Amino acid sequence: MKTLFFAWRYLWSRPLGAALNLLLLSLGLASITFLLLVGAQLSKAFDRDLAGIDVVVGAKGSPMQLILSGVLHIDVPPGNVPLQAVNELAKNPLVAQIIPISLGDNFAGYRIVGTSTAYVDHYEAQLAQGALWTQPMQAVLGSAVAKRMGLQLGQTFVGSHGLGAGGHTHGENAYTVVGILQPSGSVLDRLILTDTASVWKVHEDYTAVDDDDRKVMEEEREITMALVKYKTPMAALSFPRYVNTSTEMQAAAPALEITRLLNILGLGTDVLRAFAGVLLLTAGLSVFIALWSAVRERRTDLALLRMLGASPAKVATLLLCEALWLGLLAAVLGVLLGQGFAQALALFLSLDNSLLIGGMVWPAGLWVVPALALVVSLASALLPTVAAYRVSVLRLLQSR
């Protein structure tokens, strides 16, 4: 305990140098913490939200845009597709299930999704209150939506046109809250779910059409996309090709597109990793120089300790403990800073209700951060410690 106390006093005997070393180490560790947190949460979000969805069918355009808008709900869709065409796909012997997705409106930035109750079943979401919709203009709120907007069962709200806040409102068509989902950690937490017919009702105008025109309008109805589940994995070899070549729609495989997305993101994370590595290397050199200088400047103290009976190992341990204190402080500060950066990103993303990313979580891989802090600090102290261990009392006294 005395060794740890003396090491702490020695560390802060030069406060500016100690603070600089602590800052450099902490920033490098914070960068690594941030990358680990975001990477782990993105992978978890992708695995969770893409599970069980073999292919997404929608309007021709960017396949990645189709996945991001229809599964993760963080982009705008490329367009709509005819309902009749999707119904024909449902008859395909390779298809086990089709979940319709209709987009176009929002409430306070939260997307209103027209779909079927199979969408709720797909993510195994449970109701916290109320029930699922049984008719148009009834809505079920994700847990994050209900918490943020403070809506309760029986209350009504009006959607706005577009997928972001600020569009004109559909004042004549109000939704009634009939259910609130329990938190599931899935994309459903930040969505407002309703029947597909609700979306048609909001956007179709029957006031100036006769029965024949109304029938034509119903036959020409569209949805935004469809989430498809195969009956057999072998369908992945032929079904997307069939959709892309034989219809006016396109089929996008979530696994393939997310792999491409992660490869793109990997370029940015490589740069951040390199930056963090440079910071840690700089911090390690700074700690080495500081401890090496400390050995030279504390010759008198070291000589007194040896004369009072301290063994060479005791003197070396004192220097190692000083580096250990620095590593521990940097580990704590670096993790807290990294968590804070991740939380700041979460607040930024909440502006458009994107992926659920935040701080204050601890994935298993995060243990590498405190381990790395101790390795860098102790490795930097290795040569100064050896020098302090080998020097003799006579040489220390003669150097004065």
UniProtKB/TrEMBL annotation:
Parts of the chain that traverse the membrane: 20-40, 271-295, 315-337, 368-391
Ligase in keyword set: no
Domain ABC3 transporter permease C-terminal, first and last residues per copy: 274-391
MacB-like periplasmic core domain segment(s): 19-199
Compartment list: Cell membrane
Superkingdom assignment: Bacteria
Family: Belongs to the ABC-4 integral membrane protein family.
Protein name, as recorded: ABC transporter permease
Native species: Rhodoferax mekongensis
